[in-house]
Amino acid sequence: MVALALLSTGCHQAAKPGAAEPPVPATTVRVENQSSFDVDVFVVQHGMSLRLGRAALLKTQVFTIPANFVPRSTELRFELRPIGAAGAASNTRTEMTPVQPGDQVVLMIPPL
Questions:
Q1: How far, CA to CA in Å, does 64 sit from each of 2, 14, 89, 90, 112?
Q2: Is 6 helix (H, G, I), strand (E, B) or coil?
């Protein structure tokens, strides 16, 4: 089974009275893939999943989570599907993770 470390970070800036609300930066997931397999990365919310992309083996990649998945503070789950893996290295889902617009979630996939 793939073990995962999950970290969510972000920042929030208060708007000045009368000032236009600054655009919210993209919400992203940074995948540090230390395994020996490429991994397809999905974001899951309310039973809906969306493929974000493929994290190449032994690489770190950043994927943007669509704004409609994070319109405000919410909880997301991520699913990882190793390519070409069998048995113990099957699909893995993270725990529910609180995410706000502009956060970067970090997923670390350890070596298998």
A1: 23, 24, 25, 24, 26
A2: strand
The upper half-sphere exposure of residue 39, i.e. CA atoms within 13 Å in the direction of its Cβ, equals 34
Residues, the chain: 112
**Higher-confidence residue: 112 or 65?**
65
Residue 74 has pLDDT above 60, yes or no: yes
Residue whose pair of structure tokens reads 């048995």 in the numeric block: 87
Identify the residue whose tokens are 């690489």: 59
d(CA 12, CA 32) in angstroms, rounded, equals 25
Amino acid residing at 46: H
Report if pTM > 0.90. Answer: no
**Tokens matching residue 102:** 């502009």
